Amino acid sequence: MATLNEDARNLLSRPVYAWVTTLRPDGSPHSTVVWVDVDGDEIIFNTAIGRAKERYLRKDPRVSIGVLDPDDAYHLVSVSGLARLEIDGADAVIDHLAKKYLGADSYPFRRSSEQRITVRVKPQNVIHNVGR
User: Fold this and answer.
1) Contacts by 46-49, CB closer than 8 A, 24 or more apart
2) Which CATH number fits domain 6-130: 2.40.50.1070, 2.30.110.10, 1.10.8.60, 3.40.47.10?
3) What predicted TM-score, i.e. pTM, was given to this entire model?
């Protein structure tokens, strides 16, 4: 099991967009941009039940998450691990991420028909470059 050092945690804690890669049923990669944060030793992001990320992670929990510092293209964190899906508290997590990324008290794009779900990733492999 790999761990995040303080600099990696700090970068992941900033409102920097991340890309998440999951695996489609045919094994091909599926990458999307997401909001992320750090919670303890885990990286978290949020999605809605039924979306591609959630469906793919239920079948294959392997996931990769990367962030690139917009101020220094050599400062990055890339993490791979296994995803754990969690419904409890998912609405609070998306509201927290909306505050972090948008300054909004609650997630403004919420649809009444969707159920949010939090994805938690415990790092198994970490690539970290402190930049220039």
Assistant:
1) 46/90, 46/93, 46/94, 46/97, 46/116, 46/117, 46/118, 46/119, 47/116, 47/117, 47/119, 48/111, 48/114, 48/115, 48/116, 48/117, 49/87, 49/114, 49/115, 49/116, 49/117
2) 2.30.110.10
3) 0.93
